[in-house]
Write a structure and sequence with these properties.
The structure is a homodimer.
Chain A (H helix, E strand, L loop, with lengths): L19 H7 L10 H6 L13 H5 L1 H5 L3 E14 L1 H5 L4 H20 L4 E6 L2 E6 L8 H26 L9 E14 L9 E3 L1 H12 L4 E5 H6 L8 E5 L8 E7 L2
Parallel strand pairs in A: 4-6
Antiparallel strand pairs in A: 1-3, 1-4, 2-3, 4-5, 6-8, 7-8
């Protein structure tokens, strides 16, 4: 961990005085809170929507930060989405649906931020998070697993209340499925017209495929992630999975919400 | 169509003098090109990354534009992604993979912009486009089908070159799958911490499910879209699909690249 981490008292909304991403990637202190942040704000440099402890420089100026269009980084990727959402979306009114999506996105973001991950993509009832960029995390596999457990814990209470309100004609009970995988990913800008960074590569796709196989309440963790954070895998059970687009069956471990 | 459309000569990079989104949604002329755009740029109002004919006000200030957190809009949703990408991503080097993703995203964006759609989400080798918000389009179903055909046309030449370079050990030949569906969607901001708008709802999920069933070179168009643009459906064949999370089989029409 870096010296900058001394400046945070972890909580859902972030409290770092300087951008942890710019510090970890460039050792440049960019003020994001307090009076020193004011002149930066006047130039449009504010806290990022991906994580309140990073700034819009690391969010939107990847090439400036890394001096390259993309870099290879060892990272842990987390995907989460709401199981039963498609069926529900045909049956409840749009205002309720919007509230459900907002609640899910907010609860997940707080869980991810609490472990220094960033919410890189939100897609309706789903999201993708990156652990170890731009905030460096020594144990990024462990951080992602803790965030996944946190997502399940925070969402269960909220969704159980909603499930109690919906009768069974709305389809199966709502829950959250999570997939986590660790590997080398390519991080950078992958189109000439967008400037916010993202991650691509086989490891990203494997994390997405794991998530698509996770039932409500389950976290599917790849063997690669589990091997890096064995102490976070208490109670996990092995499962062999056939994943779309991946030739060999994949061995993964299942954590079920307690 | 609105008076503002007189100001565009359609091309991939956009050429409207004022933001077509702010004009169509609020009848407010926001200069985005030419000398009148300079003072706006000084205040951070620039062309949006979602479409070069709209501005960052309609991209990021949905609540200011619509005076609500979300609105119900009849729209056509298009999803596209690269078939064979997951398998390929395990086998080629990250630089080549990045070039492929950038090329795909750029070609798709040009096709979507040429028909007044917006690139709302990019997710690795996939994207989601919205037709009829914030730029209003009388025949949004037809515009989306034309964009889908354009995507197939533009990507085919590029991917065929790449396929010729890759031997068959890299897996099946690369191609693009597209899904298109028209219906009422909820457009707005769906988390308290992000300010760019998106679309959610059953119609969005159906478009995504259709895309997931499209083979390389195919465009799967829902019956709802086809019924609104019958003259764009020449050569289409019916197909009955079982889609994940949707109780009844869905009747769709398949357009195959010519």
């Amino acid at each position: 961990m870096t010296a900058a981490s001394d400046l945070i008292q972890p909580n859902g909304q972030g409290s770092a005085k300087i951008c942890l991403g710019c510090w970890d990637q460039m050792h440049v202190p960019i003020p994001i809170r307090g009076p020193l942040a004011l002149p930066f704000r006047a130039f449009g440099i504010t806290r990022s929507k991906m994580n309140p402890n990073i700034c819009t420089i690391c969010e939107r100026s990847f090439r400036y930060v890394k001096k390259k269009r993309h870099v290879t980084v060892s990272a842990t990727i987390l995907f989460a989405d709401i199981r039963g959402f498609t069926r529900l979306s045909e049956r409840i009114d749009p205002v309720k649906l919007s509230e459900l999506v907002s609640m899910f996105q907010d609860l997940c973001a707080q869980a991810i931020w609490a472990h220094d991950g960033i919410v890189n993509k939100q897609m309706g009832d789903g999201l993708m998070a990156i652990f170890n960029f731009p905030i460096k995390i020594g144990d990024h596999a462990g951080a992602a697993i803790m965030a996944a457990r946190d997502i399940q814990r925070r969402c269960t209470a909220a969704l159980d209340r909603l499930n109690a309100d919906l009768d069974s004609s709305h389809g199966p009970a709502l829950g959250v499925g999570v997939g986590v995988h660790t590997g080398d990913v390519e991080i950078g800008e992958f189109s000439t017209f967008r400037s916010d960074f993202t991650a691509i590569g086989g490891a990203v796709n494997l994390a997405a495929r794991l998530e698509s196989k996770a039932a409500a309440g389950e976290i599917l963790v790849s063997d690669a992630t589990a091997a890096q954070a064995p102490d976070r895998m208490t109670g996990a059970e092995p499962r062999l999975l056939a994943l779309k687009g991946i030739a060999q069956p994949v061995q993964a471990r299942v954590l079920i919400k307690s």
